[in-house]
Design brief:
Length: about 210
């Protein structure tokens, strides 16, 4: 989901559940399981898939959290290295592989924050800019990023994690719960409070008050 789509969802006041979404996710989980099993057997094509599939996601996640391209590159590379080192020990539990990968990434982020004296104020990034985008589209995206970034600063760390993982990375509640180390009901509560806060902050009335 893009930043603009997330902003529209927040201001729209509702979240629609797509009926076939769970079936689609289950099929993806089965496909990922087969690919990871092949990667555990040193299959070159499967190992290449791991890199190509997760590097851009990890880069984006790292930039969202750290606000620096070099640190985001370091995160993506280091997390993928840790994934490969621990690949033989990975066991399937019915969750997407992303839940395991982003759990490693979150632990890396926590370590990075502990090394910094203060929490960085970073912009919410919606992926690497497309050179084909028009100046108007780039300007609209920059405005949406800035507005949402300012609002996200008012959320707790866990609320930000839930919003990013669920609505930017597209993970389901069970997978998000695995990443942040909370129950599924706690994730739903965090999501609800975060969306209420964002809706208030991003609404015209909330913007005027801030």
């Amino acid at each position: 989901m893009s930043v603009q789509a997330l902003s529209a969802l927040v201001l729209g006041g509702s979240i629609r559940t797509i009926a076939h979404e769970h079936a689609h996710q289950s099929a993806e989980v089965r496909q990922e399981e087969e690919l990871v099993r092949r990667a555990q057997q040193s299959d070159h094509e499967a190992l290449s898939w791991l890199y190509q599939h997760f590097y851009p996601k990890l880069y984006n996640y790292g930039y969202l959290q750290l606000g620096d391209t070099h640190l985001a590159e370091d995160l993506a590379s280091e997390v993928l290295l840790r994934v490969l080192e621990r690949l033989q020990d990975y066991r399937f539990r019915g969750l997407p592989v992303a839940a395991w990968v982003f759990r490693i990434a979150r632990n890396y982020i926590i370590d990075q924050h502990r090394r910094r004296q203060r929490r960085p104020q970073v912009p919410l990034f919606d992926g690497i800019p497309d050179s084909n985008d028009s100046p108007h589209a780039l300007a609209e995206r920059a405005l949406a990023q800035r507005e949402l970034h300012l609002a996200m600063r008012h959320l707790t760390e866990e609320q930000r994690q839930v919003i990013i993982l669920k609505f930017i990375e597209g993970m389901d509640n069970v997978s998000v719960a695995r990443v942040v180390g909370r129950s599924e009901s706690a994730v739903k509560s965090l999501q609800h409070r975060a969306l209420v806060a964002l809706r208030k902050l991003l609404s015209p009335e909330g913007t005027e008050e801030s």
